[in-house]
Amino acid sequence: MTTTRFAPSPTGYIHVGNLRTALMNYLIARKTGGTFILRIDDTDPERSKEEYVDALKQDLEWLGLHWDRVERQSQRLDRYAEAAEKLRGMGRFYEAFETPTELDLKRKKLLNMGNPPVYDRAALALSEEEKDHLRAERGDGVWRFKLDQERIEWTDGILGDISIDAASVSDPVLIRGDGQVLYTLASVVDDTEMGVTHVVRGSDHVTNTATQIQIIQALGGTVPEFAHHSLLTGPQGESLSKRLGTLSLRDLRTQGIEPAALLSLLARLGSSDPVELQTEMAELIEGFDITHFGSAPTKFDVEDLFPLTAKYLLGLDFSAVKDRISELGVPDDLAPGFWAVMRENITTLGDLSEWWTLLRDGADPVIDAEDAEFAAQAMTLLPEGPHDSDSWGTWTAAVKQATGRKGRGLFMPLRKALTGQSHGPDMAQLLPLLQVIKAKE
After folding, report:
1. Beta-carbon-side half-sphere exposure of residue 357 (alpha carbons within 13 Å)
2. pTM of the model
3. Distance between CA 401 and CA 230 in Å, rounded?
4. Residue 202 contacts residue 29 (beta carbons within 8 Å)
5. CA distances from 182 to 45, 78, 114, 211 (A)
6. How large is the angle between the packed helices 351-361 and 335-342, nearest 10 degrees?
């Protein structure tokens, strides 16, 4: 059975980059009737915050991405310690004591010589006496996994055949000097013990995947199917890394983006399939195919979410927004008509508030100087309310007859006088909803 996982670190709010990874893993699991695990990567006690755990769960639930079970890495430290001990016993784990400054100098020297900046494994030559001396002087060292210096190959679900020479990669640090287990070891142990069969993540993890494959094999696990999706950029191809803080799901939700819009875009972005609004999760699941995605950097523009949101709202029945409209104070007898008119003239539900304020309180008229006399005359011809769908036609016909105006010269000044805007809903539909009409000179 297919098992996938989403493993965020609770050090901040989930953003569109995180969501893309989560969604792909979710859709793969659901399409095959498998298991989707939410795995909290909280091995860093200083940076991990429970408020972020709660927030990411809320964000996923808002989107309708429901997990089958939750795992916490902070509750599995004994499993990582056991795996580390196993690697030590196999001679695949060794302690190293270089300071960051010393490592930096080694890297610079190798680069100056035109060589890849690969760790030289100097720690392997240390005697036990030398190690004891270094521990006394510097404290515990880091623990590195000793790679077999051979080619690591796999067929990636997106990138195709991958081959990386392990000799060109530094032995990865899996445990810090303070004892903190790092992502690479924890992830491998979890994926192995939880039976994860498919891992989808960003292409920045490709080299990391190569080292993880060897660790999995050393621990006797089954290597999962890997797929590395492209990284998101801004609309001009710029890096999103500095903007991700403003592209959290919380911020997008505050801006009025609907879940269906966000999921529809990210389920297709970077693939050969066109982006289409999907209002049902079953449609997203059925239409998802990881092999349709490419490796090129993928442009993400938050503005693309607004037309999709508007299209989603256009398809909603009144029953779906009844409570939201009621909260604005729209009278029950006007509410259905209000939605029927406004659904075609909003981008987000937040736009309803401005429209209701206009309809309830009236607008500040916008009257151009050359239209002042015309507007004043026209307002004297406006029939008393309540108005219906015929009132606009009756009124404009009377104004046309009295003034001789027609077309845009007739309709636009009247719209601006009543609504203060040069565009908006059909006035025949809007006029019956106007609660107050202020004719200001």
Report:
1. 7
2. 0.91
3. 64
4. no
5. 12, 14, 30, 13
6. 120
- The helix/strand/coil state of 163 is strand
Pure H helices in 125-269: 128-138, 183-193, 206-218, 249-254, 259-266
What parts of the chain have a pLDDT lower than 70? 241-246, 436-441
Q: How far is CA 377 from CA 82, 401, 411, in A?
A: 88, 12, 14
Q: Cα-Cα-Cα-Cα dihedral of 407, 408, 410, 413, to 10°?
A: 170
Nearest to 29 by CA among 215, 296, 281: 281
Structural domains of the chain ordered from first start:
234-313 (1.10.1160.10), 362-433 (no CATH)
Residue partners of 34: CB distance under 8 A and separation at least 6 = 1, 2, 3, 4, 28, 197
| Tokens representing residue 315 in the block | 């398809």
**What does the pLDDT read at residue 235?**
87
Q: Give residue-wise pLDDT tens across range 377-433.
A: 999 999 887 899 999 999 999 999 999 999 999 999 999 999 999 999 999 999 999
Residue with tokens 């055949």: 161
- Return the pLDDT at 242: 56
What is the helix (H) or strand (E) element at residue 198, kind and residue range? strand 198-202
For the record, the structure tokens of 242 come out as: 């500095």
* pLDDT tens profile 36-64: 999 999 998 889 999 999 999 999 999 99
